[in-house]
Amino acid sequence: MRPPTRQEAIDAEGPFDLRIKKGGKLHHYQLRYHPFDVVGWDGHMYPYAISIHDFEPITGLIHMPPPVHQMFEGSGFVVCSFVPRMFSYHPRSVPAPYNHSNIDSDEVLFYAEGEFMSRRGISRGSFSLHPGGIPHGPHPGATEGSLGKERTEELAVMVDTFRSLRLTENALAVEDPDYAYSWLPERHEDGDVPDAGVHGGGSPAGDGQAPQREPEAPEPSA
Ligand SMILES: [Fe+2]
Fold first, then answer.
1. Ligand 1 centroid distance, CA of 169 (Å)
2. If you measure from the C-alpha of residue 218 to the centroid of ligand 1, how many angstroms do you get, rounded to a whole number?
3. Could you tell me the distance, in angstroms and rounded to a whole number, from the CA of residue 135 to the centre of ligand 1?
4. Could you tell me the distance, in angstroms and rounded to a whole number, from the CA of residue 222 to the centre of ligand 1?
5. Domain parsing of the chain, residue ranges
6. How far is the CA of 206 from the centre of ligand 1 (A)?
7. How far is the CA of 47 from the centre of ligand 1 (A)?
8. Residue range 79-104, pLDDT digits in tens
9. What does the pLDDT look like over 11-57, one tens digit per residue?
C-alpha cells in the first residue's frame, strides 16, 4: 500500500465548485478559495492506494473458498481480485469453479486480462453481471478442460453487493442479449473449450460461493 505523495497547497481564489454526496443525494457548494489550500488534515480518514499487481492470493492443496480473493470490504459489498496464481495442487483437484447461484449477492466482474479470452461472450474489458440466485458457472467442457492445469494468468476484479443492483440506461445499451444462452451445449459443439478461469468459463476464481455476509468473499463467477 502506498500513501499519497505530498502536494503543495493550492492558494488560488475561485470560485470553485464542490459537490458533496450525503444520504444518497448530491449537494452543490461554491467555494471562494480552492479546497486544497491546506497543509494537512485531521481525522480518521486517510487515503491510500494499492495495486492489484501487489495482491497475493491464498492457494492450497484443494480448491480455496472465494474469500481468499477478497481485497476490500465496505458497507454492503466486497471487492475481490482474481490474479495470476497456482491452481490447487492435489493431483485430483478440479481447477474450474463449480456452478452456483450466490443467493446472497449480485456479482459484477470486470475482465482485464487472462484466459477468459476463450470464454464465450467474454473478452478483455467485458463486464458480467450475475444477479443473486441466477445459476451460473463453467461453460460446457470448461470443467473437463481445466483438469491438469497448474496455474492461471487471469486478471479480473469482482464486486459483490448484498443488495440488488439496478442497471442504468448506459449499461442496458451495451448489454449482450445472447449472454444468457452462452451455456447452451449447442453453442460449444465446435470443440472450442473455454478455459477455466474466473467465472463462467471457468476460472477457479469465482468459485461459486456467495460471499458471506460479514466480509464474505465471493467468487468471480459473477
Ligand atoms: Fe458467481
1. 24
2. 7
3. 8
4. 4
5. 1-49, 52-206
6. 6
7. 30
8. 999 999 999 999 999 988 888 888 99
9. 999 999 999 998 889 999 999 999 888 877 677 777 788 999 999 98
What whole-number distance in Å separates Cα of residue 66 and Cα of residue 212? 10
Q: Which residue has the cell 485531521?
A: 42
Q: What is the whole-number distance in angstroms between the Cα of residue 40 and the centre of ligand 1? A: 42
> Residue 48 contacts by C-beta under 8 Å, 6 or more apart in sequence?
1, 2, 3, 4
pLDDT of residue 213: 36
Nearest to 112, CA basis, from 148, 85, 146, 81: 81
How far apart are the CA of 221 and the centre of ligand 1, in A? 3
The answer as to CATH 3.40.50.1820 being correct for domain 52-206 is no
C-alpha pair distances (Å), 207 with each of 11, 59, 64, 210: 51, 13, 9, 9
